[in-house]
Amino acid sequence: MYKYDNYDQAMVDARVAEFRDQITRRIAGDMTEDQFKPLRLMNGLYLQLHAYMLRVAIPYGTLDSRQMRMLAHIARKYDRDYGHFTTRQNIQYNWIKLEDCADILEELATVEMHAIQTSGNCIRNISSDQYAGAAADEVTDPRPWAELLRQWSTFHPEFSYLPRKFKIAVIASSEDRAAMRLHDIGLELIRQDGELGARVFVGGGMGRTPMIAPEINPFVKADDLLSYLEACLRVYNRYGRRDNIYKARIKILIHEIGADAYRRQVAEEFAHVKTLGIDPPLAELERISAFFAPPAYDAANVEPDRNDPDFALWLDQNVKPHKQAGYAIVNISLKPIGGIPGDATSTQIDVMADLAEKYSFDELRVTHAQNIVLPYVAKRDLYSVWQALREAELADANLDLISDIIACPGLDYCSLANARSIPVAQKIATRFADMDRQRDLGELKLKISGCINACGHHHAGHIGILGVDKKGVENYQLTFGGSGAEDVSIGKIIGPGFDEDGVVDAVEKATEVYKALREGDERFVDTYRRVGLEPFKEAIYG
Amino acid sequence: MKLLTGNDLVSGAVTWWTGNGWSLHVEDAADVGEHGEAILHAEEGARRVNAPYIIDALPTGDGPRPAHIKDRIRALGPTVRTDLTLKPADPAAGDWII
């Protein structure tokens, strides 16, 4: 894992001191809320329905046990003993007091953490593949590149006041586990004739106008990548709309001028930027990459004993192949039946930290699906890990099944939401609580957003649910056919919305149609794509 | 009836204008009638409340009930964590929201 150098630490410490002073002045009345709001947002501090909410950055979702324990400590000392892992691989706390915020950030800084780039119209926390460094199918480890982008983007003076927020994802596998093409910029690291570079996709996103990012460049050499991204951002910064918040994302710019025109302008800008010498020298890349060297794997390859049937089910569902023989990737579900997607208590966070330290070379990942990954677990240790997870109520074997639901905080917490997301997720998970039934349905990605901002990624759900406000009453629209993976697609609304119980019934009817029409091992989304909407619509609306 | 609500500047807690101060409990809220804007500006200026706004509510035997579900959730707490609501001992308290 990357470790701060003196510059990194000094920058974070200085930011904490600056924000402490700003908080003091706000409480003393030397600043109005209008003056203070952009400053607190630059430090990840929102005002939500019930209290202040602090969103803490977890760069590319990677952290160590010391950092994870700090997150538990913050939950225990300053919040209400839990945290909520988010779809941008971050964590947020829902009950923060303004007067505590500087102390929290100071404590976070002691373990190289902060809340920078978790809000505001800047380049947000870089996201990546949660299996980075462990995936058998990656062409290179994307984390050094994500870290390079973090350093490039943090406090970038030219990009601190963009027309709108800007999200970048980096992957290095053909299997997309990071919803890469639904980002403002998606990078897929590839090799072409042995040379490392990136496919560059620009202009994707969810929100009220979902768009799949078009490919702007099929291969940008690694040596040119920062210059090329700088050019991409410059064109956006120059021409992105600032007069209408709903038209300000780069996806709107590219949609309006066309991908070809944007590509040409980026090429012209790149020709200039490349002369500025901002691409890092090889020595700096090697310095960063050294932090992500493979761990000292044990040569032993001991297959786990599958005699315990519950353990075997968990192995089959939540444990994924590793590029290193004798090792596995463990997915910890934060989606217990009837629980709150992405929430974990301080005790559970500590348990995961302990397991990472003992069994996963001291490393964890947060996934955009609001789960946790232990990326380097020896197969011989899997049973011990599972037992500890089960003890902590963290052993649900439901990865990628219908109860592994992405849900935003919704109207229970969020001041932007129009409807509650979490109770719908809980009711659906409870309706499908029978694990045999869930496994029979197979991979079914269900995602719920409580408003059109789509923090719950409903556009990318095989089944998506969007909560809306219908004359003061919660109403839920269903979408089918979305995907955030390599088969990326935007879901389509199937018809009129439902009330809270009605949408659960509709989801159940959809699964019955799927079971009746599926062929072979076809997934729900594949059956939908093959047969179309009509059979589903007929069953749901009659 | 009209209520004035906001968040406490320091703690962030949801607060309700009672007629002569701020309370955490919506049942203490007073009808501000046509005076909401004036109170709002005075209280915000005095840093006794953050991000105040005026809402519609209905009078009931148990006190005012905000007209919109968002404000009812603000008043009681998240419906999915009854242990964190202002009335954790009352299992039926959540029914008031829906």
Plain-language structure description:
Chain A has 542 residues and is α+β, with helices and mostly antiparallel strands. Chain A has helices at residues 6-28, 33-41, 65-78, 98-109, 143-153, 225-239, 250-257, 259-273, 282-290, 309-318, 346-359, 382-391, 422-431, 435-441, 500-517, 524-531, 534-541; strands at 45-47, 52-56, 62-64, 82-85, 91-96, 127-128, 168-171, 185-192, 195-202, 215-221, 319-321, 327-332, 343-345, 363-366, 372-378, 406-407, 446-449, 463-470, 473-480, 492-493. Chain A folds into four domains: 6-109, Alpha-Beta Complex (Sulfite Reductase Hemoprotein, domain 2), CATH 3.90.480; 134-290, Sulfite Reductase Hemoprotein, domain 1 (2-Layer Sandwich); 309-391, 2-Layer Sandwich (Alpha-Beta Plaits); 408-541, Sulfite Reductase Hemoprotein, domain 1. Chain A contains 17 helices and 20 strands. In chain A, strands 1-2-5-4-13 form a five-stranded antiparallel β-sheet. In chain A, strands 3-14-15-12-11 form a five-stranded antiparallel β-sheet. A five-stranded mixed β-sheet of chain A has the order 6-7-8-9-10. In chain A, helix 6 crosses helix 8 (259-273). The mean pLDDT of chain A is 97. Helix content of chain B is 18%, strand content 28%. In chain B, strand 1 (2-7) and strand 2 form a beta hairpin. The two termini of chain B are 20 Å apart. The interface between A and B is medium-sized, with 27 and 23 residues.
Helices and strands, with pairings:
The complex is a heterodimer of chains A (542) and B (98).
Chain A: H1 6-28, H2 33-41, E1 45-47, E2 52-56, E3 62-64, H3 65-78, E4 82-85, E5 91-96, H4 98-109, E6 127-128, H5 143-153, E7 168-171, E8 185-192, E9 195-202, E10 215-221, H6 225-239, H7 250-257, H8 259-273, H9 282-290, H10 309-318, E11 319-321, E12 327-332, E13 343-345, H11 346-359, E14 363-366, E15 372-378, H12 382-391, E16 406-407, H13 422-431, H14 435-441, E17 446-449, E18 463-470, E19 473-480, E20 492-493, H15 500-517, H16 524-531, H17 534-541
Parallel strand pairs in A: 6-7, 7-8, 16-17, 17-18
Antiparallel strand pairs in A: 1-2, 2-5, 3-14, 4-5, 4-13, 8-9, 9-10, 11-12, 12-15, 14-15, 18-19, 19-20
Chain B: E1 2-7, E2 14-17, E3 22-23, H1 36-45, E4 50-60, E5 63-66, H2 69-76
Antiparallel strand pairs in B: 1-2, 1-4, 2-3, 4-5
